[in-house]
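Example 9 (inverse folding). The structure is encoded as follows.
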């Protein structure tokens, strides 16, 4: 069995192309690129050698085997251990909405599906929905029908969209929106299914969805109290 992870890379904006090309050379063709800016304390930024201005955040899906190869390349070819290059880290996935989406996101990486998640006691999960730009409300309307709360939207650009026809049977545009929705674990399957059914690949939104385990939370007390009163 293989483990599947969301690999997050944070680097200065001017190195975006260099990282994207490196990942493509290692066989990771599908990615999401979002823009951001540094907010960490100056001593933390100084430690990593990152300035506090413009950042790129790159999201890729990797298996544990692929990560070992990529990590080695990040150190040797990208010299990521040198301050100022960037940082990369993994977040374990708990599930992915559909086999087509899995094949597209892993894009040829060898993956043997095991159990959903090794983190079974988590109370909450983070749903990550990637949809065509302009269809956030379609996604959220579907999620709210099964009692999801609000989401957070990040505008992003996708790469590897030319492979969508092969793995998904549809054409994707590069302009994307990433929608983050924190849900109770008990609600996860219903909400993912609603999004796939009403805003999925057969809709104009062309959404794909996967979930990440949330090991701890703060600021969720009001939502919990409202649910207890309902």
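The amino acid assigned to each position is listed next.
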């Amino acid at each position: 069995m293989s483990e599947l992870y969301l690999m997050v890379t944070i680097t200065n904006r001017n190195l975006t192309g260099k990282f994207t090309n490196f990942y493509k050379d290692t066989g990771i063709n599908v990615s999401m690129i979002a823009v951001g800016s540094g907010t960490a304390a100056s001593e933390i930024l100084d430690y990593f050698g990152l300035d506090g201005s413009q950042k790129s955040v790159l999201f890729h899906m990797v298996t544990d085997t692929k990560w070992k190869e990529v990590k080695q390349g990040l150190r040797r070819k990208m010299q990521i251990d040198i301050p100022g290059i960037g940082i990369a880290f993994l977040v374990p996935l708990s599930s992915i909405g559909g086999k087509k989406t899995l094949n597209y996101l892993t894009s040829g990486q060898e993956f043997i599906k095991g159990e959903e998640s090794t983190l079974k006691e988590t109370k909450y999960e983070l749903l990550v929905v990637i949809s065509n730009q302009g269809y956030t409300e379609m996604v959220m309307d579907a999620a709210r029908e099964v009692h999801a709360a609000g989401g957070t939207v990040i505008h992003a650009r996708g790469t590897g969209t030319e492979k969508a026809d092969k793995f998904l049977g549809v054409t994707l545009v590069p302009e994307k929106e990433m929608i983050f929705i924190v849900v109770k674990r008990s609600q996860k399957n219903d909400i993912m299914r609603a999004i796939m059914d009403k805003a999925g690949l057969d809709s104009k939104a062309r959404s794909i969805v996967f979930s990440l385990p949330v090991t701890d939370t703060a600021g969720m007390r009001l939502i919990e109290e409202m649910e207890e009163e309902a």
